[in-house]
Design a protein that fits this description.
By secondary structure, the protein is mainly beta. 5% of the residues lie in helices and 56% in strands. A hairpin with a 2-residue loop joins strand 33 and strand 34.
Length: 537
């Protein structure tokens, strides 16, 4: 039994004893035994017991029980009101279970005690809860503001939905710091409520704990790796790095965890698969070696130059212009590139303004050029119809307007018996040279030498057929009678054959095994000489 209950039992026993004393005093006790009176009163909305005029034996204690109605509380308890001994004993009350006690101890005088009551104030607690969670009060879901009495200590249970946690909690806009464990559920208890309050709570998905690994990606100069820097990759995921070199460069090395992996690139990309740990990848770059080809220029026969004069190296893919520089009065005759004719050719051609352009060079080129004289030339041709001297030059080409001299040198014992220049015939002339000045046309010279020992009365032509021939031919001797000398002379003036023949006005056949060339047939009959040039094919 607690002390408070024990005190109440003693008090009740004293009351019973007091009432017995009162009866004995009235009916039995002798005069001289006295009691004190305590006048007890209570205001509305509560009670005080015992109440009314309560007699108390001298020196005894008197306990009073004060009980407020529901929703009310003691406003004041005043002892001996309106006397010099008036005192407010509210602070001295002893609280019980919904009741309060006040005890007069060692009563030696009359007293009064008066209890008054007042309504207990109430306050509203507003709950603002977001989705994906709930707030309970007294095991019930809070759906509207909660009203509590002043001094109450209400308790609210905050519960996130499955898969969610408390994101933020504040009381009257003051944030409450929660531990990781409390984020999954939290009970908040107000201290004795003395004002209105607001609970604000929001919920969020529980973050998935993801394990990540770091891949440190770096690239040297003249290239890139994408992405680069510290790249975070979720455990078990793949990560692709694209590696690219700048123009003129190529990938030199790709070290993955310090091991060469350049051969693992696919279209310039390296892939980490199923990443379960940290890695490094480092790319370096180098200049692409330049492929060169040789272009060689050669002039055959002179009369001009070429660029390049000799050989030059050209980078692959570049364009190079080969330039031809003919001398004055010369022009390109032919150009060959690696043996293929590039000038002259039909169609659009390859060479323009003496420039041969090689585009996107991808092989060696051997360029050979031949120049030609583009001036006008005339020919001076000499035919020696009978041997016996030398004529130089016998055939020559002369630039228009130039001069040329033909030198005539009879052999010893010979002389020029006949000279024909462009159809003009001179007999038995003495000359050692023939000069043409300011040549403006071709010229033909026919010359015949004759021994000084033969008296030339007439220089006549023969009829030889066929002409040209193959060394077998016939001579018409119808105008010649008697014995005669037959001579065959080559182009150098040397006598190939000499024989004596009997003409008798006949046609005779001759058959020689001759090399191809020009020959002179000469018949000497008496005082007459007959000559004719033949061509052997």
């Amino acid at each position: 039994m607690g002390p408070m209950a024990y005190n109440r039992i003693i008090a009740n026993m004293k009351k019973i004893f007091f009432y017995v004393l009162v009866l004995l005093t009235v009916f039995c006790l002798p005069v001289g035994l006295s009691a004190q009176t305590i006048v007890v009163s209570a205001g509305e909305h509560g009670t005080i017991s015992p109440d009314g005029n309560v007699a108390v034996l001298l020196g005894d204690n008197a306990e009073f029980t004060i009980t407020p109605e529901s929703g009310y509380r003691i406003a004041s308890v005043v002892v001996d009101a309106e006397t010099a001994n008036e005192v407010n004993v509210t602070a001295n009350l002893v609280a019980g279970d919904g009741v309060f006690f006040y005890t007069f101890e060692n009563v030696t005088a009359d007293h009064t005690i008066n209890a008054t009551f007042e309504e207990i104030p109430t306050y509203t607690i507003t709950v603002v809860a977001g989705e994906n969670g709930s707030v309970l009060y007294n095991d019930a879901l809070v759906s509207e503001p909660i009203v509590v009495a002043e001094g109450a200590t209400p308790e609210f249970e905050i519960s996130p939905a499955t898969g969610y946690q408390i994101e933020a909690l504040s009381i009257d806009e003051n944030a409450i710091a929660l531990t990781p464990v409390q984020l999954g559920g939290y009970t908040y208890t107000f201290e004795p409520v003395m004002a209105a309050h607001t609970i604000t709570v929001s919920f969020e998905l529980i973050p998935v704990v993801v394990t990540t690994h770091t891949i440190v990606a770096t690239a040297g100069e003249n290239g890139t790796i994408t992405p680069d820097g510290n790249v975070e990759v979720e455990d078990g995921e793949d990560q692709v790095f694209q590696i690219a070199a700048n123009d003129g460069y190529r990938i030199a090395s790709v070290l993955v965890d310090d091991v060469e992996a350049i051969n693992d690139l696919v279209n310039g990309a390296y892939t980490f698969t199923n990443v379960t740990e940290d890695h490094t990848i480092a790319a370096t770059f180098e200049a692409v070696p330049v492929t060169t080809y040789t272009i060689t220029g050669t002039v055959i026969g002179g009369h001009g130059s070429i660029v390049p004069d000799g050989s030059v190296d050209v980078n692959a893919g570049e364009t190079y212009e080969v330039r031809f520089i003919p001398d004055e009065n010369y022009a390109i005759d032919t150009v060959k590139d690696n043996g293929f004719l590039r000038y002259p050719v039909e169609g659009t051609g390859y060479i323009f303004d003496n420039v041969y352009t090689l585009t996107n060079v991808s092989e060696n080129h051997d360029i050979v050029v031949v120049y030609k004289d583009i001036r006008d030339y005339y020919n001076v041709h000499v035919e020696v119809e009978t041997a016996g001297g030398d004529v130089t030059p016998r055939d020559t080409s002369v630039v228009v307007g130039s001069d040329v001299t033909i030198h005539v040198t009879p052999n010893a014992g010979y002389h020029v018996s006949q000279l024909e220049i462009d159809g003009n015939v001179l007999n038995n002339c003495e000359t050692d040279e023939i000069t043409f000045t300011n040549i403006q046309a071709d010229h033909l010279i026919k010359i015949a030498f004759f021994p000084n020992s033969i008296d030339e009365n007439e220089f006549s032509s023969l009829s030889v057929y066929p002409n040209p021939n193959n060394g077998m031919f016939s001579i018409d001797l119808s105008n010649i009678e008697g014995e005669a000398t037959y001579q065959l002379i080559d182009a150098r003036g040397a006598v190939v054959e000499t024989r004596e023949i009997n003409a008798n006005g006949e046609t005779k056949m001759f058959n020689h095994k001759l090399n191809a060339g020009t020959y002179i047939v000469r018949i000497i009959a008496g005082d007459k000489v007959y000559v004719e040039q033949i061509v052997v094919e």
